[in-house]
Specification:
Layout lengths: L3 E2 L12 H5 L4 H13 L12 H10 L4 H4 L11 E7 L10 E2 L15 E2 L5 E6 L13 E9 L2 E6 L11 E7 L4 E5 L4 E5 L7 E9 L2
Parallel strand pairs: 1-2
Antiparallel strand pairs: 2-5, 3-4, 5-11, 6-9, 6-11, 7-8, 7-10
């Protein structure tokens, strides 16, 4: 089942609007604003104009407080996870559903497609207990992810050389609240899941498509 994009999070009542930016910001909103400012007009996270380590440190330095971001974190527990737009970034961001590459029929029973985004800015994802994403690539996008609440498990796979070979697991890691990770296509395929049986997990994502 494809993830949903929470409609309420796309309106002025939830996304980080210009009015919000002009008033006093809490620590989470300051982080979002700083990330957008540093990226500026660049083409993406791997652009020569961008220091990914600087962005990652900013995300690591933020101490998650639920009261800072809870108004952006809508959930639909019938889905694996729910996307909520927080900030559109540098003006290149737009919310569109595209087909991501599921490169092997070995994953056909999990999902034949995943609803994703081109040129996303910053998103909060709410992960349903004991559910997650299908195995997918990032369609040339680059992503930083910070766990704001709970734990998230990442399973990475190599790219299969042909459709007759199942991708092999090359890494599994569980990220705790406060941890930050980076993902891009050169690192392989992956899936993210919430291993907790009863509690949601929440993460902040900075996603960009290199154009």
């Amino acid at each position: 089942m494809a993830p949903s994009i929470a409609k309420d999070a796309l309106g002025s009542g939830s996304s980080l609007s210009p009015a919000t930016k002009s008033t006093s910001l809490n620590a989470f909103e300051t982080l979002v604003s700083d990330l957008s400012r540093i990226l500026g007009p660049s083409s993406g996270l791997d652009s020569s104009e961008v220091d990914v380590k600087q962005l990652q440190k900013l995300m690591e330095d933020y101490v998650s407080s639920e009261k800072d971001w809870e108004k952006y974190a809508f959930e639909d527990l019938s889905r694996g996870y729910t996307r909520n737009l927080v900030d559109e970034g540098n003006g290149k961001s737009n919310l569109v559903s595209v087909i991501c590459h599921v490169t092997s029929p070995h994953f056909a029973l999990e999902s034949t497609y995943i609803e994703c985004a081109t040129n996303y800015g910053q998103l909060i994802l709410v992960w349903t207990p004991n559910k997650g994403s299908p195995v997918h690539d990032h369609a040339d996008a680059h992503c930083l992810m910070k766990v704001l609440k709970g734990t998230l498990k990442e399973t990475r796979f190599d790219f299969p050389r042909n459709n007759a070979t199942a991708p092999q697991v090359i890494k599994e890691i569980v990220y705790q609240q406060g941890e930050v990770t980076y993902m891009a296509d050169e690192l392989g395929l992956h899936k993210i899941s919430n291993p907790d049986e009863g509690e949601i997990a929440v993460s902040l994502h900075r996603e960009y498509l290199v154009i």
